[in-house]
Amino acid sequence: MSTTAPTADPIPGVLTRESPLDPAAARLDVTVAAGDGWLHRLRTGEVLRIVDLCGNQAVDTLLYDADDVGRRYSAASTIRTNGNVYLRAGSTLVDGEGGALATITGDTCGRHDTLGGACSQESNVVRYGEHARHMHACRNTFLRMALDHGEPLTKRDLAANVNFFMNVPLTPDGGLEFADGISAPGRYVQLRAERPTLVLISNCPQLNNPCNGYDPTPARLLVWDAETAAAGDPDAPAAAPTTLPAVWRAGGGRPTDDGAGAAR
Ligand SMILES: [Zn+2]
């Protein structure tokens, strides 16, 4: 079904939009095993669909300008640009200078987390105990992908990430909860690259909280080339305009609120 605008979902404030793109026309169709990772370059206009094959699987994701990885996804700037802490159909993911990296052009889940961050050995020990120290963790997967694939990414580039399909609702007083997921088998989120973009994914191996339903499962990734995507989905949402002051983008230095401080 093709729809011009995102449509309301039964969950208040949740928007969804199905995409008419045909999986048979994708130039790439791969499955990432539970706990594994993926690093891929998207050209401008290419579209990536992430399918939650079995439901309630957190897919931790980072985005970078493929030509300057210092210009990377910024949770703070993205929340400000979209005026919402959740990502959904029509949201634009931006870098620390407000420049668009990717826009969500399809989403049948309706809510994705910007705040929960990635699991790590350290956070697993703090949250779950010493026995969790050597469990697989997203931060290790990010680092392994970054170092193994010949891209100019290092540990310091692992900033605050998106958790696709993960449900981290804000409480009325601003607290965070790791809640049971709202995704289901076959639901997907779809991103259009607004410039050459590196996509780094950890298909979360977490066993100790409900982000994966205590059972990590595979994710399917499809990529359409720009021409096929534009022709197949002419009504896809446009990128949101930047909301950052022009002076921030005029060569006066990069803002430091990209959420990367804890990772340095
Ligand atoms: Zn994780």
Helix and strand arrangement:
Elements: E1 7-8, E2 15-16, E3 28-32, E4 37-42, E5 47-52, E6 59-65, E7 68-72, H1 75-82, E8 86-87, E9 92-94, E10 100-107, E11 112-113, H2 121-128, H3 138-148, E12 162-164, E13 187-193, E14 197-203, E15 219-224, H4 226-232
Antiparallel strand pairs: 1-2, 3-15, 4-14, 5-13, 5-15, 6-7, 6-12, 6-14, 8-11, 9-10, 10-13
Bound molecules: zinc ion.
Question: What's the short story on this structure?
Answer:
With 264 residues, the protein is an alpha+beta fold. The protein is built from 4 helices and 15 strands. Mean pLDDT is 87; it is low at 258-264.
Describe this structure in words.
This protein is α+β, with helices and mostly antiparallel strands and 264 residues long. It has one domain. The chain is 13% helix and 27% strand. It contains four helices and 15 strands. Strand 9 and strand 10 form a beta hairpin. The chain binds zinc ion. The site of zinc ion has 6 residues, from loops.
Descriptive tags:
alpha+beta; six-stranded antiparallel β-sheet; 4 helices; 13% helix; disordered C terminus; binds zinc ion; methyltransferase; DUF1989; Urea carboxylase-related aminomethyltransferase; aminomethyltransferase activity
Alpha-carbon distance between the two ends: 44 Å
Rg is: 17 Å
Largest sheet: 6 strands, antiparallel
Total E-strand runs:
15
Give the structural class: alpha+beta
N to C succession of SSEs: EEEEEEEHEEEEHHEEEEH
Number of helices: 4
Summed over residues and divided by their number, the pLDDT gives a mean of 87
Bound molecules: zinc ion
Q: Roughly what percent helix?
A: 10-25%
Strand content: 25-35%
Domains, number: 1
- Residue stretches low in confidence (pLDDT < 50, at least 5 long) are 258-264
Organism: Patulibacter medicamentivorans
EC number: 2.1.2.10
Enzyme class: transferase
Region (Disordered): 232-264
